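task queued by scheduler; priority normal; single chain, no ligands, no partner chains; default sampling; output format set to structure tokens
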Amino acid sequence: MVWIGYYSAKRPNVPQPERGWTVSISWTHPPVYGTAQEENRLVGLDTWVIPPFLGLLVLGEVIKIYKLRDYSGLKPLRWPFSSKRG
């Protein structure tokens, strides 16, 4: 997110071939232009940072539910799926 904010603030909204800024940078609004290397860096950060972060969130919730028996974020289950009958 920091890189996207930096590129959005510092880069032009039109291509500047004399500086090599000809590629539209993803995730910026309005679209800004930079180099192909910068675009690849941002896509790489999305690939290598976001999935592991989401995996840690899921792992934390699984530990909270199954190891700590904390079901505070879930709806109570009804009869066919619950161990209680009645």
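post-processing summary
- The beta strands are 23-24, 33-34.
- The chain has a mean pLDDT of 81.
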